[in-house]
Amino acid sequence: MSKADKLKARAPRGFADRGPSELAATERMLAAIRESYELYGFEGVETPFVEYTDALGKFLPDQDRPNEGVFSFQDDDEQWLSLRYDLTAPLARYVAENFDALPKPYRSYRAGWVFRNEKPGPGRFRQFMQFDADTVGAASVAADAEICMMAADTLEKVGIKRGDYVIKVNNRKVLDGVLETIGLGGETQANQRLTVLRAIDKLDRLGPDGVRLLLGPGRKDESGDFTKGAGLGPDAIDRVLSFVDARGATFADTIANLRKVVAGSARGEEGANELAEIGTLVAASRYEDRVIIDPSVVRGLEYYTGPVYEAELTFTVTDEDGRPVRFGSVGGGGRYDGLVGRFRSEPVPATGFSIGVSRLFSALRMVKSPIVSGQEQPGPVVVLVMDKDQIAAYQRMVSTLRQAGIRAELYLGSSGMKAQMKYADKRQSPCVIIQGSNERERGEVEIKDLIEGAKAADAIASNAEWKSARPAQFSAAEAEIVEAVREVLARHFS
């Protein structure tokens, strides 16, 4: 190919590559989350990346345009398929498909990639990982209270200190009551109601003035893109914003404020009663300092039917302009009693919580949690190739180390010793094995401790002194190669 015809190597916008250190740190974080979920009795299940688009149905971002917000395509049977938008809708399909075989309530967790066909931006990706836990088949708000407490325990398990986070709880029934009072209670207003929900969901990011625009005519963002608003009148906007601002100093104060806002709406009063019950359960388990009512939490998806919750980190970070801002949400969820019932003749209650893995990972790095900033696994021991006609002998050394449980590799390039040493440095190898003809005749190997050698190099002034000192290099019998390498590893790694 000519230079002009060569492909440009680039990742698609909104998608990211991940290196070995990030993968290892993420796995440690996922293991801690999994341990927390399992402590509460949840068990793992896995669903595919692709679902039939109609299984996601009206819970897609835009029900009239199935490829808006999700990645969709047709198979050879002309069936519409979509990459999963979240892990909740696939769970609903799985439970409905296996309903008779599963214990009820059914408690499960899932970790996996989800996909959003949306405009990418700073911190916003088209592919990202979530880690969910859900209880299906329990109508009691005790299930919601339990998940809120589990969310708090999970954040502490991964290294977020108490006081640096809060679990905020609200109830969509209360908001439904407010919307009824402003004329948005009917099925024909479903799209307008969803626009209101998404506007309120942006309160932390846009503030009251930005939300007011989204509740009214619409808002133009910094890039010039215009988001159409809900089209509410001034009185209706004031009513919605008064609901959002109903939080009091205590659980009881907030409940009292909400009862005033939804007075006259049976559904709104039912939601307030459920929040009061959650408050009682949370206090009984001594989580009242970590789980609070916040009416601004609504969650942007249509399928929530009752309590909704959000895990928010309260410490501040510095934004791109150097201004301090709160880190914000790293997860959320709520009750979705209608989702499984779409596939069955009877209603099936359900509630769940989802952690945004990438966002939580960023937060853990900021607070220097040992989960993600702890000691990395050492790179492999590299056996250098000094004599190309002795590859079998070098490969035997590598196999001996691997059989002893030591990460090891044979240098498979074609370069000389200097380049091989540079290669081992890039691989973050703790040491290299060197055997030329002289060492082979003596039945020995030279082992060079690269970590100790790097330290010694700082103290050696000249190249001649370096060569004569050969810092951190020693001889060992080839038969004792495992013990010698373990001695090097023990110096630097627990």
TrEMBL record:
Example of a GO MF term: histidine-tRNA ligase activity
Sequence positions that bind L-histidine: 86-88, 116, 130, 134, 299, 303-304
Annotated ranges, domain Aminoacyl-transfer RNA synthetases class-II family profile: 27-378
Gene3D superfamilies: Anticodon-binding domain, Bira Bifunctional Protein, Domain 2
Protein name listed in UniProt: Histidine--tRNA ligase
Keywords, ordered alphabetically: Aminoacyl-tRNA synthetase, ATP-binding, Cytoplasm, Ligase, Nucleotide-binding, Protein biosynthesis
Gene Ontology CC annotations of this record: cytoplasm
Top class in the EC scheme: ligase
Source taxon at top rank: Bacteria
CDD domains linked: HisRS-like_core, HisRS_anticodon
Coiled-coil region: none
Catalysed transformations (reactions): tRNA(His) + L-histidine + ATP = L-histidyl-tRNA(His) + AMP + diphosphate + H(+)
